[in-house]
Design goal:
By secondary structure, this protein is α/β, with parallel strands linked by helices. The chain contains 20 helices and 15 strands. A 5-stranded mixed beta barrel has the order 5-6-7-9-8. Strands 1, 2, 3 and 4 form a 4-stranded mixed sheet that branches. Helix 17 crosses helix 20 and helix 18 packs across helix 20 (498-509). The protein is elongated, with a radius of gyration of 49 Å. The N and C termini lie far apart (134 Å). The relative contact order is 0.04. Mean pLDDT is 77; it is low at 425-510.
Length: 510
């Protein structure tokens, strides 16, 4: 099977140029193909080697055998005398190459060799394509629509084909065979039919590459694109930063009369583009990212969870949120933070509801100055969390709590009374607290005294209170005739005094 050097080598060279692979790869494929055909023809298990002779243009096949004194395996061994028939310099334990005739292989063997060559060449071509395009991920390429396969678009990249799935297509665009497109390579997949190059018109990288082409300041690194958030076919937000304080990053991207950004918008078929100045401060960056809406206030809710709260004027709320939430969604993606956006009215109602809830729940007992930590802990263990709950409890209820005795009850009464007298709670809660305090005072007085002495003391206190009340009543009556406008106020003040009410309640209780 001798082939002239010129014919075979010309064929190999032409094939390597068409497929873009190394000629040595094709030569190796030819050698392997002839080797397979030879083994199939001779039906032997000998160790065979093939070699392409560039001088003669022939593919030579040899059987490699080891020289031994005693032959045990004829397919792999031969004697020294036999070896010297092929190689006069042969020696024991050496190897001898015995030529195999290839001109007898026939048509079937040649067809087998052809299939092997095509298979090897295809594999080499796939490896070359994968190695080339795998290094070009993120690169902007020009392509032509070759055909439509269902929802996928097949494009011609020159050396190979690219596939643009539905998810990588812009919503604004429809494609026809022959259309010229700019797309960005996003992935190269190894498939059974060869490497699949995936291109995209919806990836944010496409916008970045277009800006690099249109804006020289971005290409040379003066202006840096920090982040891009895109919903293909509708809107894109681009955050830019200038390394040179004398260069306006936003102005450089927009261009004179918007020429630069308009060129990119035309390439994206009318997709809206917001160019935003990047800021290291997330609060300032959030205010920029939500443009064109005007922001009233931005606050960080949780720095670890990256949670922001944004307050806008009522008239700016719909603009800040955008159509179907698009503006705030893109801003959150650009920031990398979770954004809650509220109007000033919503925030005011939220604060009012929180204040109302706090008023409903009442002040916490921790606001009572004068009670120790152990006492507060015992009260909380029994479900007493607010001053209101504590004020509604009787002395008997308090003494039922382990660790709270009569002295502690008296201390609690005094602290609660001082709290309400200082205006610590709404006035509506003051009256029941004073009544309970009076009852608590009488109960403590009855417990602390003993026998007849206690009864006499209470009787004296009662008589003194009665006489005092009568005297004040007579004085009030006498003075009423002299000055009717001033004394009713004094009388009302006396009646509402919690200090004088306490003995009166005690008299009625007895």
């Amino acid at each position: 099977m001798i082939v002239t050097t010129s014919l075979l080598y010309q064929t190999i060279d032409q094939l390597s140029r068409e497929k873009g692979i190394d000629p040595q790869v094709i030569i190796s494929a030819v050698e392997d193909a002839i080797l397979v055909a030879t083994r199939k023809y001779y039906k032997t298990s000998e160790d065979l080697e093939s070699h392409f002779n560039k001088e003669t243009g022939a593919v030579e096949v040899y059987a490699v055998k080891k020289v031994v004194e005693r032959v045990e395996d004829e397919d792999h061994q031969l004697s020294l005398d036999e070896a010297r028939q092929y190689d006069p310099d042969a020696s024991l334990e050496g190897e001898v190459r015995i030529p195999k005739a290839t001109d007898v292989l026939g048509r079937i063997a040649a067809q087998t060799a052809k299939q092997v060559i095509f298979q090897k060449v295809r594999e080499a071509e796939r490896d070359t394509v994968f190695a080339e395009y795998n290094q070009r991920i993120g690169e902007l390429v020009n392509c032509v629509v070759k055909q439509l396969e269902g929802s996928d678009v097949i494009v011609d990249l020159g050396r190979t084909e690219g596939r643009m799935p539905r998810r990588e297509q812009s919503r604004l665009e429809t494609y026809q065979v022959g259309d010229r497109l700019r797309a960005v390579i996003t992935a190269v997949d190894r498939a059974a039919r060869g490497p699949q190059v995936v291109v995209s018109r919806a990836d944010a990288m496409l916008v970045q590459r277009l800006f690099e082409m249109e804006v020289p300041e971005i290409y040379d690194g003066t202006v840096v694109i920090k982040a891009i958030a895109r919903e293909a076919g509708e809107r894109t937000k681009v955050a830019v930063y200038s390394k040179d304080p004398d260069v306006d990053c936003v102005g450089a991207c927009v261009g004179m009369k918007g020429m630069r950004v308009q060129s990119i918008i035309r390439e994206l078929r009318g997709e809206k583009i917001d160019i935003i100045e990047y800021n290291e401060d997330p609060i300032a960056f959030a205010a920029n990212a939500l443009s064109p809406a005007k922001i009233s206030h931005v606050s960080i809710v949780d720095p670890e969870e990256k949670h922001l709260e944004v307050i806008v004027e009522d008239s700016q709320l719909s603009l800040a949120i955008g159509k179907k939430g698009q503006n705030v969604r893109l801003a959150a993606k650009l920031l990398g933070w979770h954004v809650d956006i509220k109007s000033e009215e919503e925030k005011r109602q939220e604060i009012e509801s929180q204040m109302a809830e706090m008023a409903r729940r009442g002040a916490a007992i921790t606001e009572l100055a004068g009670l120790g930590d152990k006492t507060l802990e015992r009260l909380r263990e029994h479900g007493i969390e607010t001053v209101e709950q504590l004020a509604q409890m009787t002395p008997d209820d308090l003494t039922q709590i382990p660790g709270i005795g009569d002295k502690t009850v008296e201390k609690i009464r005094r602290v609660v009374t001082e709290y309400f007298e200082a205006g610590g709670q709404a006035s509506g809660a003051e009256a029941p607290v004073e009544a309970e305090a009076a009852v608590a005072e009488d109960a403590l007085a009855s417990e602390s005294a003993g026998g007849e002495e206690a009864v006499e003391t209470e009787a004296e206190a009662s008589s003194e209170a009665t006489s005092g009340s009568a005297a004040s009543g007579s004085e009030s009556t006498a003075e009423t005739g002299a000055d009717q406008s001033a004394e009713p106020a004094e009388g009302a003040e006396t009646a509402s005094s919690p200090v004088e009410d306490a003995p009166a309640v005690g008299d009625k209780t007895e």
